[in-house]
Structure to design on (165 residues):
């Protein structure tokens, strides 16, 4: 297989990220997955695994959504993405929730995007921030996308003096 084609896949299905947590245009963008080290597809199981290296991580890009890490696992149920798990040192996530809002950043040892339950779970040296509003670190952080609720274990939080409550 052509090395370039083997390391770069264009996935034409949408990540059904809720519109309340993504730019409206994100869902209309193709999902582009870059697997610089190796990729495997288990079509009958609805599983795709994308691997990178510490100097050249695996990546997913879809509009303002960006994920990167040593390994990305994409799980699908009936053709729809149900879960994306990113692991690495660190695993990273970023996305702009709305046009007028700052980009949300998250990092940790692993990040799980649970599409079905609209949850993001960040584990291991977890960090979650949105410029001007919140900067949180903890061992584990859960973010309920639909309700915009942050739940953390052993949390340290900085709320800038200029942030609106």
């Amino acid at each position: 297989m052509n090395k370039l084609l083997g390391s770069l896949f264009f996935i034409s299905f949408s990540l059904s990220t809720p519109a309340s947590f993504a730019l409206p245009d994100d869902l209309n963008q193709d999902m582009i997955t870059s697997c610089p080290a190796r990729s495997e597809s288990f079509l009958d199981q609805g599983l795709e695994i994308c691997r990178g290296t510490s100097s050249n991580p695996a990546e997913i890009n879809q509009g303002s959504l960006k994920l990167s890490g040593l390994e990305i696992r994409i799980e699908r149920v009936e053709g729809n993405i149900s879960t994306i798990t990113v692991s690495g040192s660190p695993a990273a996530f970023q996305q702009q929730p709305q046009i007028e809002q700052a980009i949300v950043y998250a990092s940790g040892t692993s990040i799980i995007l649970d599409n079905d339950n609209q949850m993001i779970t960040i584990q291991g040296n977890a960090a979650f921030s949105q410029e001007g509003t919140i900067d949180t670190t903890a061992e584990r952080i859960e973010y309920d996308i639909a309700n915009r609720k942050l739940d953390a274990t052993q949390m340290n939080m900085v709320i800038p003096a200029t942030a609106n409550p």
Observations:
- The chain has a mean pLDDT of 80.
- The two ends are 54 Å apart (CA to CA).
